[in-house]
Amino acid sequence: MKKWLSFLLVFVLAIGLAACGSQETSNEEPATETEPATTETTGSEAATPIGESVDYQIVGIDPGAGIMKATASAIEEYELEDWEVIEGSGAAMTAALKKAYDKEEPIIVTGWTPHWKFAKFDLKYLEDPKGVYGEDENIHTITRAGLKEDHPNAYIVLDQFHWTADDMSDVMVMIEDGMKEEEAAAKWVEENADRVAEWTAGAEQVESDEITLAYVAWASEIASTNVLAKVLTDVGYDVTMTQLEAGPLWAGIADGSADASVAAWLPVTHADYYAEFEGQFEDLGSNMEGTRIGLVVPSYMDINSIEDLK
Ligand code: PBE
User: Fold this and answer.
1) 212 C-beta closer than 6 A to ligand 1
2) Going by CA atoms, what residue is nearest to atom 4 of ligand 1?
3) Model confidence over 144-198: pLDDT tens digits?
4) Could you tell me the domains of the chain?
5) How far apart are CA 69 and CA 269, in angstroms?
6) Helix residue ranges, H only, the chain
7) 173: Cβ below 6 Å to ligand 1?
8) Ligand 1 site, residue 110, Cβ cutoff 6 A
C-alpha cells in the first residue's frame, strides 16, 4: 500500500514539475523546495516579496475584537507602516483563509486558539518577539452585578463551568462540518455527561426563569455559549443567546441588560474592556486556560516571524 502510494506521489510530482517547467510565472509549487527566493530579478518588486504577495494586507475580523487592537499595536511596534488590517468578521476571515489555502496562495490572518481552522488547515503562528499579542491567556466567565442573588442556580453553573481547548475544538469542528450549532452543543453535552454533572452540581432545577447569555460571533464563543445554553436549559432556564459586538457585550453585562458571558479573553485581549467596566461586573475566573492570539499563516508560507513582514 505504502509503496503504491509513493509511486503515485512520484508520478504526480513528475507531472507537477513538468507543468512548472512550461510556465514562466514564479508560482512556487510545493515540490520546488528551494532556498527562500530573496532576490527575484523582476524589476522593482524585489524588496518585500511577502508584502507584495498579499497586497500588504492582514485579514482581520470584527473591529471590536481585542485581536484587532493588538494587531494595530503590532503594526506600530514592528514598524509595518505599509500594511493595513482588513476589517470583517470571523466567518469572512476563515472564508478568505480557505480560499487562499485551497490554491496554496499566501495569506496572513488574525488568528486564535482554540479554533477549528487548526484542525482543518496546516497553519502556524508568526513569532512575536516583541510580545505584542501577550503570552498564553485564559477565557473568563463574567456576570452582571446581582446575578448571584437573582439567579443563584444559574450562577452556580456559570461559576463551575470549566473545560479545555480540546473540548471546545470538538464542538467547533462539528459545527464547521455542518452540524447545527445547538445540535453540536447538545451532542457534546450528551457525550460528556460526567463533566457537565460537575458544572451543575449543587444547582437546583428552576422553572423557566429567563436568562440572557451574551456572545460575539467568533467560532470559539459560538461553541462555548451554545454548550452553556444547553446546560442551563436542562436546568430549567429559558435561555436567550444575544449576539453582540465585543464592546456592546461588555457594556451590556455592565449595565445589566445581559446576565452573563463566557467570552471574556484575559488578561490581554479584552484588557481595555475590563478596565473600562471594572467594578460594574463580576469576574468568575477562567473557564479555560492556555488560549492564544496572534498572526497566523499557512505552513507553506516561507516566513516565521512578524519581523519578516518588514
Ligand atoms: N478572538 C476570539 C477574540 C476573543 C475570542 C480572539 C477573536 C478577540 O480578539 O477579542
Assistant:
1) no
2) 265
3) 999 999 999 999 999 999 999 999 999 999 999 999 999 999 999 999 999 999 9
4) 138-289 (3.10.105.10)
5) 8
6) 2-21, 49-53, 66-77, 90-102, 117-120, 147-150, 152-160, 165-176, 181-191, 193-200, 219-234, 246-254, 271-277
7) no
8) no
